[in-house]
Amino acid sequence: MSNLNNEVDVLPLSKQYVFPNWIPGDWYLNQLPGYRLIFQTIFGNLIGSFGFLATSIIGRLFCYSLVATGIVLLGRKLALTLPSLLVAVGLFVYIRRYQGVVAREWLIEGLETKAIAYGLVLLSLYFMLCGRYSLTIVLLLGLATSFHVLVGGWTFLTVLGWLFFERSKTDYQPCLFW
Length: 178
Known about the structure:
By secondary structure, the protein is mostly helical.
């Protein structure tokens, strides 16, 4: 696992998007943002205010917190105790070092669009298990898709399948919030 991941790619792109005069003639940094528009706007402004290192640290803490919140809420909803949740997460990280299914991808390793999208997906799954098919899930999945098209898009299709095949909505218990 690298300490920099894709941060050396996404952070300069973010700064260049917000500050186009930073390196105006660079063909790579001046490409269109595509699905990274929200990410580049938020973190480009943070880079302008705090610099690359502080933005990297702030962004990583945000990504870790977002994913951790989703995992804890899902663990509570599935009635997992803290030790069993810690063992499950530890085994996931230990056995699947790259945390992904294919292509050595990862859920969280640093600041990038994919980590934010996975955090939002975990939160939307929590609300699905609570039986809250509302604007909250739509908003979370829309944001996840805006941050990473593949992560959010495939989750959106999976949620559509879930909603299509789900039969009863009476077995759900209340959520912790919302």
